[in-house]
Amino acid sequence: MSLNDLHRITAQQPGEAEALPFETYRDPEHFEIERRQIFAADWVFVCMEADLPDPGDYHALKIADEHVVVVRGSDGELRALSNVCRHRGAVMLQGSGNTSKIVCPYHAWTYGQAGALQGVPHRGEVAVDRATHCLPRFRLGTFFGLVFVSLDDDAPALDERFRGLEKYFARYGVERFEHRYPIDVQPWQANWKLPMENFVEGYHFFAVHPRTVETAASTRDCFYVEGHADWSITGGSQLDDPDTWKDWIRGRSREVHYLSICLPPNFVCNLYDGYMNWARVLPTGPTTCEIATGSCSLHAFQASQEYIAIAEQTTAEDREICEMVQQGISSRRSKGGRLVELERAVVDFHQYLGKRLFGEDHSRRFRTEHADHFDGTCSAAASESPGPAAASSRVPRAGPTCSA
Ligand code: FES
Ligand SMILES: [Fe+2]
User: Fold this and answer.
1) pLDDT at 91 over 90
2) Whose CA is nearest to atom 1 of ligand 1?
3) What is the number of the ligand closest to the CA of 102?
4) Residues with Cβ within 5 Å of ion ligand 2?
5) Residue 241: what pLDDT?
6) Which of 34, 44, 90, 188 is the most exposed place for a label (fewest CB within 10 A)?
7) Does the structure show a pLDDT above 90 at 228?
8) How many angstroms separate the Cα of 131 from the Cα of each of 91, 115, 136, 402?
9) Which CATH architecture describes the domain 4-41+163-388?
10) Identical topology for domains 4-41+163-388 and 43-154
11) What is the predicted pLDDT for the residue at 382?
């Protein structure tokens, strides 16, 4: 695949920007470049800290061919460990759960929550040096309750990566959203960029979600807040109708705005007063990905059957359209067109791709008057939030082997 078109398009500014070349959503060689320069190099979202509240809580995932498990140790620390056994390479933990030890399913070598080798069954007279058979560790960082892992020991610090976002997260006090709801994981038949592009724009609400999202937050009420290649923020107004699920999702205040925050490569959330739902996108192949969704809230609540049904329906609608687009972009004759104003965050995402793939940042930080509403809210909320300094202080350097 020629990279020239991609290079040109990821350098475009809003107003002139176009959709990406269709080959980038299906080409195996391009997928390999993204794997190496994006997912193996940048900070990748895993889950919320609130998803792993207790010692032994873990969440396993695959990032750029690395099987990683994030575990909370008995000392309360979160660690990102290799989830590959040091004996003969079996993948050990799956999904989410709680365990006092990591036990390999193959020959039951056993590791502690910090990755130290603790047991080798039936080893006979053979000595297995525990110090050199620990699970390797990856860099882990938290930012306002969000947990990220980077496979690259030289990636910039997390607070530097997300500089400028503090006031938005602090305004909502996201790190205090301790009530969580189970993470749902689904395989989608779509290149990972399709759901990312889909989740960051409200342009499709009226057409794809006419009886779900559009009834609560209309396309015509979506707006851009602030952004550039490294992250973008859009928002919207919710219809002030107290009659339905939107009143529940709005929380206890009469706040009728929400924010959508995109932290590329793989995190998007919708942020409301006292509530957040998020999506994590991980590529699994050139034309497939895995979508994980979760939510957390400030106060405990019992989601009504009506709300659960609407949330599931919304996800199903997004899945159907993304998988349909994946079918469409197999075309050799057709090609993408102009992006409209409501897709400005998609342009940011494309500029992110350009920055990672070509090493050139063509983005100009763009900020609308909506961003003004958040000025000054950071200092007011900062005393209650960990803030960027606290966030960065929780980014330990990774080591090739565990030191525990
Ligand atoms: S591969 Fe894990 S114990 Fe053998
Ligand atoms: Fe959608």
Assistant:
1) yes
2) 88
3) 1
4) 318
5) 53
6) 90
7) yes
8) 20, 11, 11, 8
9) Alpha-Beta Complex (3.90)
10) no
11) 26
User: What is the tens place of the pLDDT at every residue in 253-282?
Assistant: 444 578 999 999 999 999 988 889 999 999
Instruction: Give the C-alpha separation, 346 to 193, whole Å.
Output: 10
Atom of ligand 1 nearest to the CA of 109: 3
Residue 82 CB neighbour total at 10 angstroms:
22
Tell me how far the alpha carbon of residue 179 lies from the centroid of ligand 2, in angstroms.
24
Report CA(91)–ligand 1 centroid distance (Å).
9
Burial 170-184 (b: 16+ CB within 10 A, else e): bbbbbbebeebbebe
Ligand 1 atom closest to residue 85's alpha carbon, by position in its atom list:
2
What residues does ligand 1 touch, defined as CB less than 6 Å away? 85, 87-90, 104, 106-109
Q: What is the pTM of this model?
A: 0.90
**Residue nearest (by alpha carbon) to ligand 1 atom 4:** 107
Return the percentage of the chain with pLDDT > 90, whole number: 71
- What's the rounded Cα separation, in Å, for the pair 304 and 307? 5
Structural domain spans, the chain = 4-41+163-388, 43-154
